[in-house]
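Aim 2 progress update. The chain analyzed this quarter is reproduced below.
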Amino acid sequence: MKFKLLMSLLVAGALSASAQGYKDGVEYFKADQFENAKELLERNLNDASTDKAEAYYYLGAIAVKDKDYAAAKSDFEKGLQANPQNPYNKVGLGELELINGNVKAAEQLFDEAKKMNKKDAGVMVAIGRAYFNADPVKYAKEITKYDEQAMKADKKNPAIFILRGDRKAAEEAWGDAAANYENAILYSKEQPAAYVKYANAYFNVNPDFAIDKLNELLTITPNSALGQRELAEKYYQNDQWSKAAAAYGDYIKNPNHFVEDEVRYSVLLYYGQHYDESLALANKLLASDPQNFQLQRIAFLDMAALKDFAAAENQAHKFFAMDNTKNKFTSNDYSTYAEVLQELGKDSLAIFEYEKAIEVNPDKLDLYKSLSAAYSGAKNYKKALEVFKAFIDKGDYVTNDLVTLANRYQNVAATSEDDSPEKLDAINNAIATLDKVIEKVPGNPIPVRNKARIFLVKNGSKPSQEMADAYMEVVKLLDADPENKTKRSDMYSEAFTQIASFYVSEKNMAEAKAYYEKLYELDPTNQALRDYIDKMKID
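Predicted structure tokens:
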């Protein structure tokens, strides 16, 4: 029994250390995040540690923001039932009277609130805020009056400066707003809302400074759900993905996090290349929310990244079935699916997905290259060439893309009818393209080797003088680096074999034998080649 009691105390202590109950809802309210505030206040309303009078006041204030005045009145009255001496619910009822145009009734309720807690700067600020919410222009005099009374009661009360900051923010005087939020922090470090508003005021100007302020907040109030979430969001908005993922990982351990934050965390884990963790979280959330579009997407992308292509294809069927006006598929969705299909040997199906990707984002030029590769994989070489030429014509390409273009021409040439104009045109274009490559990288043997292969296609797979000359140039370029005998022995083998076959076709057996000997030097264990060389007759 003692052990069980100890464990229960430890668990309770751990929970209290990681969350602030309804107070997190209050912080969200003060940071003007009313929907989040409402969820947390309602979630924690019946918790034993909740001050229901305070919680109902903030719920009522949120209802006022939503213009649900009946619900607001009910909440303020429930707050007074929970604690008849809570002045803030009186202030809330007074604000409703202001909204309804009953100024005298409002003033009476404000007077009653002041009597409940005399010389309380917080109450004075709440009354000033009620006037501010009702009409900041019409009640400017009253707002100033209560600001002065709050200062007389406690000139260091941070609520004074937060309201002053909000008034300046409403005028879009961001510098003055930030200065007031900074004063609130100066007088009380435990002001998450002030830190958050201060960070928001600076984020677009100096994001690193804003992030530093939020980190400072969490050194003071490490269990603030608002502070944890805002830090994670700021990292996310500043494209600091790994830090955002780490911050979200810490934040979602807080019982006062939101389900949508787990979705965001799953996304960040994916972008941080933690695919297993991202998929596990996505699957967990999908079990209770199978129609969540973003989770279905992330599960699909995770499976593709993990190279579980069969599972990714099945997941893609579920994901793309969610096609409606609200859900928008990206070019990356389609292109990733196309890649999955290609890995499964379904290039013809991948073509359709790449075409959809291009339709969504026609400016993403790599998609044209991928579509061309899919056509090539489906052995539609003419279409592969057409698409790749369209990519090249856009002008944004590198030298290696010209190598690919030459290959596309070669494929068309190799599959065209012998002696047809189409075949000859493809060969000539392949050679012209490779000449451009050779001009750009004159010391590289690869495009010269590719040109030699084109000459072989040109001559119906029979050796020719121009083919042999090209391969001899390959050998010359390879010889410039002695290490190529090891690094590029396969290229040497190809060149020696083709040159030797040319000399055989020319019945110049002495030259043919000389090149076969060079080939044997590369592979002295090839007994079949040795036997062939030894049997060669030289006139």
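The CA atoms of residues 461 and 477 lie 24 Å apart. The radius of gyration is 37 Å. These observations will guide the mutagenesis experiments scheduled for the next reporting period.
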